Amino acid sequence: MHPDSILSIFGQQIYLYGVCIAVGILACFFVLFFYAKKRGIPDKLQDFIFIVGIVAIAVGFLAAKLFQAVYNWLETGVFNFYSAGITAMGGFIGGGATFVLVYFGIGALYFKDKEKNLHVKHFHTLALIAPLCIVIAHAFGRIGCLFSGCCHGAYFGSSYVFGGVYMRASDTGIWGYYVPTQLYEAIFLFLLFSILSVMYFKGINLTHAVYLISYGVWRIIIEIFRTDPRGAAILGLAPSQWQSILFIAGGIAIIVVFILLEIPFKEKRKS
């Protein structure tokens, strides 16, 4: 829709894609702060979480490029990390793994003496907030994809077609009407964020499971309609679809653990 820069600051071009990513990150940290406050997470732990979150986001972006570079290599035989785009699924995996490792690794050293294991005590609450942070950032990121012209669906042509959005595909450079899979996903993510928020404030302890299952199912479906480069198919499925299957399995595993350990699905509120 608008892949060109909107302004230049000290010689650096600013694009709407980057603006949307920045807004998404800010929204992510706002949700983390507000939702953590509501559940009584101590201020010192919140500060620690913010620092770990910044590290995880940085590594997540690198992981997103690495995953896309590997996808391209599997499809073309050429590995080029610098020129590779980014894939959200790779960012989630790399960023999530980094967050957990740093949170528990550094946290064991940071919280000791009187505050020993403070981070462990509140990890369950943090695990309920994390999907909301991811979803809101991802939603704004998908709007950025719409402006950039990446992650698009089928090309309709140069003439208007109902349901199509006029944009320039980032992979071909061709202007025209495309299936706006980015817009559909952004709408889905904002709706999912609303549902997860209601669950969170109602004390339902399954926001992580619902996120993993619902987004996994959604991603498998939306990938069918995407026509941008997404890596070589394996047994008929794109790499992101295989990763989505793992998301669904992870969500189901969380529910099974809750049942086996008799963990309540909903918190008992104090009267």
Give a written overview of the molecule.
By secondary structure, the chain is mostly helical. The chain has helices spanning 16-38, 43-76, 88-110, 118-121, 123-148, 181-201, 207-225, 239-260, and strands spanning 7-9, 12-14, 155-157, 165-168, 175-178. The strands form two sheets. A three-stranded antiparallel beta sheet has the order 3-5-4. A two-stranded antiparallel sheet has the order 1-2. The chain is globular, with a radius of gyration of 20 Å.
Give a nutshell description of this structure.
The protein contains eight helices and five strands.
Return the string of H and E elements.
Answer: EEHHHHHEEEHHH
> Could you list the spans in which at least 5 consecutive residues all have pLDDT below 50?
none
- Nearest-integer average pLDDT: 87
**Which strand order spans the largest sheet, edge to edge or round the barrel?**
3-5-4
Percent of sequence in beta strands: 5-15%
